[in-house]
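Two records follow; treat each independently.
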Amino acid sequence: MNRVPAPLLALAAMVSVQIGAAVAKTRFDEVAPVGAATLRLVIGAVVLVLLVRPRVRHWTRGQWTAAVLLGLALGGMNVFIYVAFASIPIGVAVTIEFLGPLALSLVHTRRWRDVTWALLALAGVVLLGVGPAAVTAVGGVVAAVAAAACWAGYIVMNQRVGAAIPGVDGLAVSMVVAMLVSLPTGLLPAVDGVVAAPSLLLVFAGVAVLSSVLPYALEMLALRRMPTRVFGVLQSLGPAIAALAGLVVLREGLAAQEVVALACVSVASIGVTLSARRGRIRPAAGRTGGAGQVP
């Protein structure tokens, strides 16, 4: 694996995430979007806890608070983006979701040149607002916006958890919290779907591998051999990769203005990442597994 170029590993991680999302969407009729999110989060949480075995006995209140808040953001992000996938194309949903970390990056900048990137991102928002998805599926757009807000919150809290809790113990506990967030609305459709078709457990185990385990490992390997700024630029291709996965797996085409909007948001994200000072929050910061798909 060391012979594989690091950028290729990062791109492979993003492709894996979006293929996992597309595969999950093919089963929405059987388990509903929230049921699909629940199955993925439950499987991911169980696997991560068994692997990590977090040591929480001596955690302080501050550490618990940070881990719980991270889990709330993580659970909301996964549930909302799956709800969005149900009614709008994956490419459009991920583009809207990407506005969360992009806005967070712009809030933390003080450079006038970044106003250009903000205006470009705004142009993408406007184009999405007049696109077919926004007109015909307002609920899906609202869910994607909620996922964007959760992603921004996830980035902030992930940094705090990383500073307060060594290793990945905090992430493991946060995954359990995220699982609990999804259970009230997703448990019943998930159970009904699995009872009717037990093979769904295998399907969503595969989704968990594609959307969590594999990209997490690939991104860790990539980040060991490439600057975080380069990684951030590559992450900015997320909306385009999501649109491609939607087209190949689900035959989801995008309208012309939606393609232009996707390009505007991606270019704005690249611009902000390249101009960001060292240590400043970036769209890719603190996130593994791509848009709406965090381990």
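The next record belongs to a different protein.
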Amino acid sequence: MTTTPITPSLIATLPGHYYTDPDVFRQEQERVFESLWFCAVRSSDLDRPGAFRTVQVGRENVIITRNRQGGLRAFLNVCRHRGARLCLEESGETRRTLQCPYHAWTYDLDGKLIAAPNLIKMPDVDRVAYGLINVSLREWLGYAWVCLADEPPSFEDTVVHAAVERLSDVAAIEHYGTENLALGKRITYDVKANWKLIVENFMECYHCATIHPELTEVLPEFADGYAAQYYVGHGAEFGADVKGFTVDGSEGFGKLPEVSADQDRRYYAITVKPTVFVNLVPDHVILHRMFPLAEDRTVVECDWLYAPEVVASGADVSRSVELFHRVNVQDFEACERTQPAMSSRAYRKGGVLVPNEHHIGIFHEWLVGRLGGAHAGPVH
């Protein structure tokens, strides 16, 4: 007679040093952020040729710009002459070229070297070979995603697959038309915590009844501790008296045109590893991009996206923005409260995950696999 093994109630988290060790963070920079697709910038932020944005991806600084033909291009933010950083600003606009402020080596918006002092006297210099180093770029959901790997992994099998894995069908996210939405609000948070604490927090709702009173009023099932991401294809249903995804449950805006009847009055959440959260509600989309800057510091840029006519009309979006802004502040405070304990001897072997957090263990196994280590496993 065989017996079915009993899954332990408590399984181990990562040990504390995964959240505090600079060497672990360096490995993550190399094997995670610099090796996978990284969501860098909202495409519409670069609304004309010459507009640029610089972002930190692992140990590298990357320029994303729009060329003269209107296409997005990405390059390492490094002059090929003596290594000076080309663009010091986080964002800006250049008319026709990118010029190094050190020795005036100048590149066109496709990265080709087009001018430099005395360059005409150096006819043997290959202007393409000494152009800027290209970075792979794809657009999805209205964002530019970059990958620093020499041979990037399949975008469909990694990034797009996250939507399939969560919603069971990529069409389900396409119904929101995120690439056609307009930016209604952007808030940047500087969080004094390791990026993994933020991911883990987003993936579970065991804490929701404790720290998210406004959210659990709108989504009552969250008070039971099961996050939307716990079930494949499941969307958390609005409360019976709730009219919209707003801080007071008041009415929001009209349902986005392609959102299905099954998706109406529901909230869906997707984690796109390593650093993106997508939140879907009937009348808008909220997207978080994380920029891990140190083992104990993560900048999070959060966009609230609405139908273009809502933004163009000057409609007041503050009640829907306020709901998730409060959720963000509450979550990030919890992460900052947790970060100092990661270096405590009490957390040397890590903590534990209760049954409705066990899916976080899959994230831990994925990360440890990327780093080439071994996970602690169940707690006995």
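Discussion point: The two ends are 24 Å apart (CA to CA). How would you locate this feature using only the token line?
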